[in-house]
Design goal:
The structure holds two protein chains of two kinds. By secondary structure, chain A is an all-beta fold. Helix content of chain A is 0%, strand content 40%. In chain A, the strands form three sheets. A four-stranded antiparallel sheet of chain A has the order 2-3-4-8, with no helix packed on it. By secondary structure, chain B is of the alpha/beta class. Helix content of chain B is 33%, strand content 20%. Chain B has a five-stranded parallel sheet with strand order 3-2-1-7-19, with no helix packed on it. In chain B, strands 9-16-10-11-12 form a five-stranded parallel sheet. The chains are: A mainly beta, B alpha/beta. Bound molecules: siroheme, flavin-adenine dinucleotide, iron/sulfur cluster and FE2/S2 (inorganic) cluster.
Chain lengths: 113, 815
């Protein structure tokens, strides 16, 4: 493989997302959930729970994780991996925060690494 | 080696235990086929009483599930009764055919005794033996004003009576003898018990000779010899049992009262063993599980080819009626050569009696205070000479050897072979070594490893004390279940501390109460948010990020990520205008499904999140507000047509329902609250299974509470009777406010009321007018901040970010 190619896209600013909340970004058929934690870190996951496709953007954000609104699976925001006894993983995308402007790279998911 | 064929007849308590031992001692010797007349596997029969009382569910008392049978390769033939044993060909016969055996175990238990009187076969007459009986009784209890007559005032009859009373039935107990439980209790203790039961609203009639059960198509009443008639929708016969030996008798093996077995549990046919209540050993038949479990162990050893012998044992009994403590063991008939020691403490409701012969305990009856039961029983079984402690014996173990001991020290002083769990025959040594060897730290662990306190549960306190003795400081028996992994505090403590420390935000709670996680979790945050909303209605700013999605966006999320919308229809009333507005919204937004809910209103399902504000705007124009079908808050108030239309209506039930709903909508509660008002006791709005229900009667309003009809089914309790609509409203509001202030998050009213006691609720709401008024006023105050329609708020722009995406990259990605 050649050098890493990055495709950062600006999607909005930190203030657009409530603390411990999430907003959605549409991209074709895919919806991406962008989360903001209590400590103002930002993460992006595909908005589909590995369990039964629940919209993770609608869950409760806590401790670097989100609890799915449908059946309470807990998904790590950084990796997209289900926590505890549950198994599964959702796509996680790299995010960059520059002076509260949020950039996301959809061409590249952590899962692929 | 080819396995032998073991056939077991009867899937009851004895056979379940025997199979466990057998698979432990000789896992690969037999292929087991298990026949059971009941259409289900082994369960803990003695816990049918709490199931009948609604304190446990059937699932909680199943001892062996499908996985267990499958794991041990047991061929389960439940619902298949064995009708004959063909000893010549070594097969058992059922309606479906024959099954060969090499060894056979008969564990058919016993059959309830039915007194041969007219009417005994009428529908509505039941025994109390298996789950089918329990289900039939529960169904009978569900009828309005249902009445039960229990024939038999022994252990079984009284457990049935107390349970049926808890289910709201009017209950009469008929007992042939002069006092209750005469086989276990002396007259004085029998009298105390009778008073106790009467205090719970159970009527007791001793020396009652039942003559007939009256009724045409089903039981309607019970007639006594002296002419007394008790009306009855349900008649429970609990007059005794007899060993179920029919197939054994027919096959020609030796049967007297029960199937005769030797010390190894072998019948007169060496290939056939028998265990359980169907057995007679040494002229004794048993009706309690402890000796049956011993038999089970012996039989397993015999089958495994090991030496073992059954020894007759003394049995002790306890009555499993919540709130009644009673213990009896041994023999306490009067006799020339016997002495007795009695202790009475009328104020404390305590009665204790010991029967001695030649300085050894023969029998013990304890009522009201039973913690020394195990100690007396131990002295009894060992035949210990008690001359040295005669003076203080009756005061219990704590008073022996000088200074009084605390209960834990008393348990510490017990010898290793003292029996702690009578049901399972587990002694102290076994429990203590399990705790230390397996590193157990709590009750569940001890139950899992030793079975102690896992059957009837009355020895739970002793087991906890043993944990205390063995683990010392590191065990805290009073430990409450923490709210979640972020704190060691339970819900009650957190609620108390929020008030006393004046904590008014989630971070303040987490800081002051030393939360161990940085920002809480999805369990504690919604709970804390509710407690703060409820306790500081005018000061706390609701934290929407700590609410579950439904409450955050005021609609119900569906499995495909769309939402459903349920507007209020006050008291279930609607109009052509409202219906037209709904029809228009459905067309305009292409809503895929419209449904009448179970709550007397209309649900529109499958709405895209982005469309929600526009849907609400249109509904709002027609006068609709949110139905809060998603909220831990007031849901619906169902009504019936009442005096407006119905020929039986006694009050304006529709009007009262609408009034309550308009008064209380918008309030947040620990869990959802559903109500109903029925215009007469026919109860068409199903008020008697709601969190709060009202039954209108000619003289006013009967207020009910603490019903459930979801995961659990439970009829309501009566709160009390009031004369006017205004009073009804005040009482209901006060009740709900009391619950709002005390309930644990997600705890429905019926669970809360059970935790704090129904009588306590009645006392505070019905009897204490000042307190009721104060609750009422606090509710009214909080409504000032809560009664805001969340839909119209969002239509005017609140939380806009929730309803539209932050960006759409579709175009950019394509470029
Ligand atoms: C729509 C409705 C079914 C229907 O089509 O009729 C319904 C739908 C749901 N019920 Fe229900 N329940 C509905 C009446 C009932 C009733 C009947 C009643 O209210 O008279 C009961 C039994 C009564 C009771 O609550 O005791 C009922 C007992 C439950 C339970 C069990 C609650 C319990 O504590 O035992 C749940 C689960 C829960 O709340 O945790 C539940 C949960 C749900 C949820 C919210 C499941 C969920 O978490 O997503 C469903 C939402 C579907 C949706 O989006 O609309 N639903 N649910 C009814 C709405 C009534 C309304 O107008 O508001
Ligand atoms: C409500 C209740 C409360 C009780 N409380 C206590 C208590 O607190 N403490 C205590 O020690 N004891 C208590 N007991 C007694 C205890 O439950 C019994 O002693 C125990 O269940 C007997 O076990 P068993 O295996 O002999 O018979 P069972 O548990 O009755 O099992 C026998 C099984 O065999 C089945 N069967 C019968 N004939 C056939 C056939 N021909 N073919 C196939 N299957 C057949 C029956 O349907 C039954 O399921 C209570 C009993 C009841 C009913
Ligand atoms: S019973 Fe209630 S919770 Fe269950 S599927 Fe139906 S609507 Fe959903
Ligand atoms: S879909 Fe997320 S937990 Fe089931």
């Amino acid at each position: 493989m050649t050098a890493e190619i990055r495709n950062w896209v600006h999607i909005g600013s930190l203030e657009d997302i409530p603390r411990q909340g999430a907003r959605c970004v549409k991209s074709g058929d895919m919806t991406v959930a962008v989360f903001r934690t209590a400590t103002d870190d930002v993460f992006a996951l595909e908005d589909r729970c590995p369990h039964k496709n629940g919209p993770l953007s609608q869950g409760i954000v806590h401790d670097g994780c989100v609890t799915c609104p449908l059946h309470n699976w807990v998904i790590a925001l950084e990796t997209g991996a289900a926590q505890g006894a549950d198994e599964g993983r959702t796509l996680a995308f790299p995010v960059r925060l520059e002076n509260s402007r949020i950039y996301i790279d959809l061409s590249y998911s952590h899962e692929a690494v | 080696m080819t396995r032998q064929k073991l056939v077991v007849v009867g899937a009851g308590m004895a056979s379940g235990r025997m199979l466990e031992h057998l698979f432990e001692t000789a896992p690969d010797v037999y292929d087991v086929t298990l026949f059971g007349a009941e259409p289900r596997g082994n369960y803990n029969r003695i816990m049918l009483s709490p199931v009948l009382a609604g304190e446990k569910s059937f699932d909680q008392i199943v001892t062996h599930d499908a996985d267990w049978y499958a794991g041990h390769g047991v061929d389960c033939r439940f619902g298949e009764t064995v009708i004959a044993i063909d000893r010549e060909n070594k097969t058992v016969v059922t309606g479906k055919g024959e099954t060969p055996y090499d060894r056979l175990v008969v564990a058919t238990g016993s059959a309830p005794f039915v007194i041969p009187i007219a009417g005994k076969d009428l529908p509505g007459v039941r025994a109390f033996r298996d789950l089918d009986d329990v289900e039939a009784m529960v169904a009978a209890a569900g009828r309005p004003n249902a009445k039960a007559v229990v024939i038999g005032g022994g252990l079984l009859g009284l457990e049935a009576a107390a349970a049926l009373r808890l289910r709201g039935m009017e209950v009469v107990v008929l007992h042939l003898m002069g006092h209750l439980m005469e086989r276990q209790l002396d007259p004085a203790a029998g009298f105390l018990l009778q008073k106790d039961l009467e205090g719970r609203g159970i009527r007791v009639h001793c020396e009652a000779q039942t003559k007939a059960i009256l009724g045409e198509d089903r039981a309607e009443a019970v007639l006594l010899d002296d002419g007394t008639v008790y009306p009855a929708d349900l008649v429970v016969m609990a007059v005794g049992i007899r060993p179920e030996v029919r197939i054994a008798t027919d096959s020609g093996i030796h049967v007297e009262r029960g199937i005769i077995v030797d010390d190894r549990m072998q019948s007169s046919d060496p290939d056939i063993l028998a265990i359980g209540e169907c057995v007679e050993h040494n002229k004794m038949c048993y009706g309690l599980v402890a000796p049956l479990y011993d038999m089970a162990k012996v039989a397993a050893n015999t089958l495994a080819g090991k030496e073992a012998a059954f020894r007759p044992v003394e049995t002790a009994t306890q009555l499993k009626v919540t709130g009644v403590t009673l213990y009896s063991a041994g023999d306490f008939a009067d006799g020339e050569d016997r002495e007795e020691i009695i202790l009475r403490d009328a104020a404390a409701g305590v009665y204790k009696r010991l029967v001695l012969k030649e300085n050894r305990i023969l029998g013990a009856v304890l009522y009201g205070e039973t913690s020394d039961g195990g100690w007396f029983f131990d002295l009894l079984k060992k035949g210990t000479d008690v001359s040295d402690m005669r003076e203080t014996l009756i005061f219990g173990q704590a008073f022996q050897g000088g200074a009084p001991l605390d209960p834990t020290a008393a348990v510490a002083a017990l010898p290793d072979d003292a029996e702690i769990c009578g049901c399972n025959g587990i002694c102290k040594g076994t429990i203590v070594s399990a705790i230390s060897e397996k590193g157990l730290s709590n009750l569940d662990g001890v139950r899992a490893h030793t079975k102690a306190s896992g059957s009837c549960g009355t020895c739970t306190g002793l087991v906890e004390q043993l944990l205390q003795v063995t683990l010392g400081e590191s065990y805290n028996p009073a430990a409450v279940t923490p709210m979640c992994g972020c704190t060691h505090l339970g819900h009650s403590d957190v609620r108390r501390l929020i008030k006393s420390k004046q904590l008014k935000s989630i971070p303040a709670v987490m800081q002051e109460l030393e939360w161990t996680s940085s920002g809480g979790c999805a369990k504690c945050r919604p709970a804390l948010n509710y407690y703060l909303v409820s306790d500081w209605p005018d000061e706390y700013a609701d934290d929407y990020q700590s609410r579950f999605i439904n409450e955050r966006v005021h609609a119900n999320i569906q499995k495909d990520g769309t939402y459903s919308v349920v507007p209020r229809m006050w008291g279930g009333m609607t109009s052509s205008k409202e219906l037209r507005a709904i029809a228009d919204v459905v067309d305009k937004f292409d809503i895929p499904a419209v449904k009448c809910t179970g709550g007397q209103r209309i649900d529109m399902l499958g709405i895209r999140k982005e469309d929600l504000p526009a849907v609400w705007a249109d509904l709002g124009k027609a006068g609709f507000v949110s139905g809060q079908a998603y909220a831990k808050g007031l849901r619906t108030v169902k009504t019936c047509v009442g005096t407006d239309w119905c020929r039986f209506g006694t009050q304006d039930s529709t009007g009262l329902g609408i009034r309550i709903e308009r008064f209380m909508w918008g309030s947040w509660t620990p869990a959802k609250v559903k109500m109903a008002v029925s215009g007469c006791p026919r109860n068409c709005s199903e008020a008697t299974c709601k969190d709060v229900g009202v039954i209108c009667v000619d003289s006013g309003f009967e207020i009910h509470f603490a019903g459930a009809a979801g995961l659990d089914i439970k009829g309501t309790e009566v709160l009390g009777h009031v004369g006017s609509e205004d009073e009804a409203l005040e009482h209901i509001v006060a009740l709900v406010q009391m619950y709002r202030e005390q309930g644990h998050y997600l705890e429905r009213i019926y669970k809360w009321a059970k935790r704090i006691g129904h009588d306590e609720v009645r006392r505070q709401i019905m009897e204490d007018a000042d307190r009721r008024k104060a609750y009422y006023d606090r509710f009214v105050h909080s409504q000032k901040f809560a009664q805001v329609d969340p839909w119209s708020e969002r239509v005017s722009g609140k939380d806009k970010h929730e309803f539209k995406p932050m960006a759409d990259l579709t175009r950019e990605a394509a470029e």
